[in-house]
Specification:
Order of helices and strands: HHHHHHH
Number of strands: 0
Strand content: under 5%
Helix content: 55-70%
Length: 199
């Protein structure tokens, strides 16, 4: 079994910190006019938003983290690594295509949807059916992660359509997407046969 380098723990661990820290700080710049329960993260990354630069930097850093984690996660199936890396590329493109200060953006929304889909599918695509596979790459946890992310994404779409708690739903699903690579990497590194070279 291929070894997962220890630096993958850093890249996967930084992803949720950067994402959550980014939207928290950007919301502080926006002040009381921004409602995190009903407004999306994209509002923080829109042209003209007070915290635009914070959210943009956080999305770029998130994309780089996903790319590095996908590169280092050698135990995972190739399709899952490609999907995780594609999710990282989507985060970079979303950062480069911010929505306007009012109204939507087809380009921004389309890329965000592709990123959501890739990051929802990567756990099940990365699954390793070998009996000795790390816990985070076994079929049952992988399917459960994809199912949980998919349910969260469906909830987000429902809230968007009904002008409800879209901000809460989006933050929940993106948090799960950001944390799952860390869970997988940690489960790989905790295996006794992963004590090989760290580069």
């Amino acid at each position: 079994m291929q070894h997962v380098p220890r630096w993958a723990l850093l890249s996967s661990g930084c992803a949720p910190v950067l994402l959550i820290g980014g939207w928290t700080i950007a919301a502080l710049f926006e002040g009381p006019t921004y409602d995190p329960a009903t407004q999306t993260i994209s509002v923080l990354a829109a042209y003209g938003a007070a915290g635009f630069w914070v959210m943009t930097a956080a999305l770029i850093a998130l994309g780089v983290c996903h790319l590095l984690t996908a590169w280092g996660l050698r135990t995972a199936a190739l399709a899952g690594r490609v999907a995780l890396g594609g999710g990282g590329v989507s985060a970079l493109v979303v950062a480069l295509l911010p929505p306007p200060s009012s109204g939507g953006s087809l380009h921004h929304g389309s890329v965000a949807a592709v990123g959501f889909t890739l990051l929802a599918l990567w756990p099940v695509l990365a699954a390793n059916r070998k009996r000795a596979a790390p816990w985070g790459l076994r079929p049952v946890p992988s399917i459960a992660a994809t199912a949980l992310i998919s349910v969260g994404a469906a909830w987000f779409l429902i809230e968007i359509q009904h002008h409800g708690a879209a901000g809460i739903a989006e933050r929940l699903v993106t948090s799960i997407q950001a944390f799952w690579p860390l869970v997988v990497v940690a489960s790989c590194l905790l295996r006794p046969d992963n004590d090989g070279p760290s580069n």
